[in-house]
Amino acid sequence: MTACPPWYAVALITACVVGGIFWLVARVGRRRYLRQFQRMAFHDPLTDLPNRLLFMDRAAIAFAHAKREGTGVAVVFLDLDRFKIVNDSFGHSVGDEVLRGVARKLREHVREVDTVARVGGDEFTLIMPGLRVVDDVIKIASKLLDVFHLPMHIGGRDIHVTASIGISMYPEDAADADALLKNADTAMYRGKQRGGDNFQLYTRELDTHAREELELEARLRRALALQQFILYYQPRVDAATGSVVAFEALLRWNDPDRGLIMPSDFIRTAESSGLIVPIGRWAIQAACRQAAQWHRQGCPDLVVSVNLSPRQFHHTDLTRTISEALRTAGLAPQYLELEVDETCVMHNAEVSMRILQELKAAGVRVLIADFGAGYSSLSYLRRFPIDGLKLARSFLSADNIHNRSLATAALGMARALHIKVIGEGVETQETADFLRSQSCDNIQGFLFSAPLPAQDCQQFMRIGPMG
Fold it and tell me: Which of 78, 129, 260, 360 has the CA that lies 20 to 30 A from 305?
């Protein structure tokens, strides 16, 4: 038998070694690929948190353990408040960083046994096993809300986001993950309706409330389509002369079955559902048309004032909506005033500054409404391009000397900053006299007139206000 040459043996050994290495690399690579595939299947790619699939699996395990041990499990649904504003104002890359930051906050401030998951968009869920009493989860939810009050430093700026939290309990509220998650979502939605930045516990009554909200939302959509909304107008008078200088447009719903419905009965649902945007667009258009008509009828200097809800104020189409309404009505922009609540403006000062600058560039006037109810400091407002402010009604309480002192101080600072001040909610002659003594510019309230239908406003101007 002929012996193999040495080079052949070396080549054979080399081939075996190389083949073995390739087999090993392929096997390791396959395992790594499988691990990556499994992670992708069960984790959110942006935050690396468990996704809905893994959340449901861990929930089932937690419920089984709780059943054996006789303990409870909390299912928490958390949704960021007004997160769309962050994306619209700073871009989606900053929005993604905010979501990663939220994920870190949640992981750092829950227990090791808890599961934090991202189930979509700006929605996060938590499983908290081993709880004996509901007070335990209330403490944790309160702590999470406090954590969200701390700003996140992203891209050289401070980003403020708050959250609405809904909580349901196993086994009291339901026995499976889908039902508990639905109940927690219902509770969270209730928190949104109450302004956000709070937590709500699920109760059976919430299901009834949720159905009522859906019915009200459907009726509002129908009312918008059938043009059942109307505007009433409350006059604002010059404090020195008593002449009417403006009318504030106030929304009413003329329901054919229920009669005239006040905003307090539907505005929260309109805001939470997003219907406030098209309803508010209609209100701006209608107010501009009415002001233009008054100008043509011999009141050329009359101003109309329209309230903006938080959702309207932060909507991307706001400036375009206003410009189109003014152009269509043939109304000069200086005769339209927009009222924005102080707390809305101060929620994210940097974003609000940009919006206010856009409004001022469009030529309209801007008033800060309900001033003093939130931050009570004109130092914040010095940077904002505003034309005036409306004192919160609590400032004008005759039986509260401290509030009157604050009103005096606010009026003095406003004069120094050349900002117009309006006293609203004035119902007594004594309050009107106080405002006049402090050189308040305008006064508005039931002392002079309740809100009027548009057809009654001209007669009111002819007769003149009392007070």
Answer: 260
